[in-house]
Amino acid sequence: MSELQNKPSPEGNNGGKKGDPNQKFEPTKQFWMNLLITFLILFGLTSVFSLFAESSTKTEEIPFSAVIYDIRQGTVDKIAVEGEQLTVTYKKAHEADEAVVKVSKKEAGTSVSESLANYGLDTDTIQAVVIDIVEESGFRFWFVQLAPFIFPLFFILILMWFLMRQVKGAGMQAFTFGQSKARVIDPADKGQRITFKDVAGAKEAKEELTEIVDFLKNPKKFIDIGARIPKGVLLMGSPGTGKTLLARAVSGEANVPFFTISGSEFVELFVGVGASRVRDLFKMAKKAAPAIIFIDEIDAVGRVRGTGVGGGNDEREQTLNQILVEMDGFEPNEKLIIMAATNRPDVLDPALLRPGRFDRRVMIDLPDRNDREAILQVHSRKKPLGEDVNMRTIAERTVGFSGADLQNLMNEGAILAARENRKKITQYDLIRSIEKVMLGPERKSHVLNNKEKEITAYHEAGHALVGSVLPYADPVHKISIISRGRAAGYTLTLPFQDKRMQSKKQFKDDIAKTLGGYVAEELVFDDLTTGASNDLQVLTALARNMVARWGMSEKIGPLALDSDGGQTMFGPGIVGKEYSDKVAMEIDAEVHRIIDEAYGIAKEVLTTHRKALDAIAKKLVEVETIEREDFEQLLVLHGIEPKQDVNKEEK
Ligand code: ADP
Ligand code: MG
Ligand code: ZN
Fold first, then answer.
1. Which of 1, 248, 562, 641 has the fewest Cβ atoms surrounding its Cβ within 10 A?
2. CATH code, residues 441-650
3. Selecting from 3.30.390.30, 3.40.50.300, 3.40.50.720, 3.30.70.270, what CATH number does the domain 183-364 have?
4. Nearest atom in ligand 1 to 202's CA
5. pLDDT for 420-473, tens place per residue?
6. How far is the centre of ligand 2, averaged over its atoms, from the C-alpha of 407 (Å)?
7. Cβ neighbours of residue 618 under 8 Å, at least 6 residues apart?
8. Distance between CA atoms of 308 and 548, rounded to whole angstroms?
9. Closest ligand 1 atom to the C-alpha of 404?
10. How does residue 246 score in pLDDT terms, banded at 50, 70 and 90?
11. Angstrom distance (rounded) from CA 511 to CA 505
């Protein structure tokens, strides 16, 4: 019936990167099972048939004319008639002998006596023979009568069933459209079960998802206390970082059914199919609750609506609307959690991100060195490794690799070893594989070499240090030289409290912090890279806004010269440039002054604390990510007081 029973093949069982189910037809275990069953059935039928055939071949078959002749000779004792089949028993020569039995066939439609008479036998001769009309046995009669029809029909049915199960080509989809194409992974199926143990690293993501697992495991506890349970969880991260894997691990941990469908599977030839698939999917999942619905690659349907580039896709919009409707239409106590994954959170429709929908967002970063080592360990579990294999070294050399890349690397290593007929994978196999994976077509993220790594480390350390020393900048939460998006690294700063307003002092410190990377590069390497280009854009825009929009320059005064034309009391605001060239020059000069000042401050901070800068950069090269606690320890070691939450103390 539905594709529900059709379990997907375990992901990556052939070393493939993605377990996309309907990409191509691969002979799975099930395929061979089906083939076997078909053969068994055919075999069974043939043997049944030959059983019937046998009864007639065991005894000698003679033509009807021979029977006539024998009757004339008076050697025939009796004839048993069964349909057209005649069983002729001959008279025994001696009492002790066994009677000779032969079979024959009469013409259809006439009785035996009639046939015999037709051959010119006289009645006396006929009467001397005992003629016994045997009722055809029910089964045999029907079998003989119907076999010619049933047999081919049966054969065709088997063939159809076989095709239906295996072919998922475009032609067959016409049979199933409308029904959800979701596959379900049953928690009882231990072979496919994935738990957090199978996901290496991703510590933060796992922590956040533990709550979801708790809820699914024990929903009553949460419902009784009136807690509002998140409905939607959006997993975000670059391709291959393990989003799909994590979602499955959540269901494995919670031991609940996992309904999965890919965003692109909603969108089909027929308009309206996507929406009805969504309905079916939710209906199925609700029946199985507590359960997880996982919409992979949700950006395929969840793009911002109505942008109309290249013509809006009505089908996609309907599907998206249906998802929104379904998400609004179930109560939190329905024990259903919707998870979705995307590597393009930026293109998602804001409606999806509203509270009550995908309001939980979990970011999955590319793995750092320790995580990479752990992932390599996970994927070497079933592979025989030589004694010289050192995962740490491999992890060090694979900056920027995703989990999928690392899995691929282990696989390539195994292939190399097998090709050279070795029983174990050596370190050299793995090192050669790094290059292979790097050159592979799927890699998109940038991989840093050692020099770039060092420069990035100093750059980020520069941001972090300036931000920590200046009083009005936000405290540093995390520093990383693992690329995120287009940036080679990032420094995450978060305010202690949510900010609704920003002050001039904060902006000034922010600009200095943003310049920290640039200044650090210049200071340490006496050279500059393009790595700071985005920083420069950001800080220039900030400085310009301070001057021309927020009235934060004494020289220009409280004038909003640049404006996005927001609504004012007197109608639409001014759009664009509404000032003289002289004022424009003044603005430019002020922007320059602010940035120059910030540059001076950043340079002073980094020169004074050069030792701390070196220490942070060194640590970054080593571990790639530094969390807040470790960072603050480093600061304290170098005599810098970490930031305190001032507001808290005031209370
Ligand atoms: P995504 O959905 O983010 O593109 P997947 O979840 O499909 O990535 O990951 C692809 C494969 O990479 C997984 O099947 C898994 O084998 C491997 N992988 C990715 N991340 C990890 C991880 N943290 N631990 C172990 N394996 C991982
Ligand atoms: Mg995926
Ligand atoms: Zn920077």
1. 1
2. 1.20.58.760
3. 3.40.50.300
4. 23
5. 899 999 998 898 888 777 765 544 455 667 888 899 999 999 999 999 999 988
6. 14
7. 457
8. 34
9. 12
10. very high
11. 10
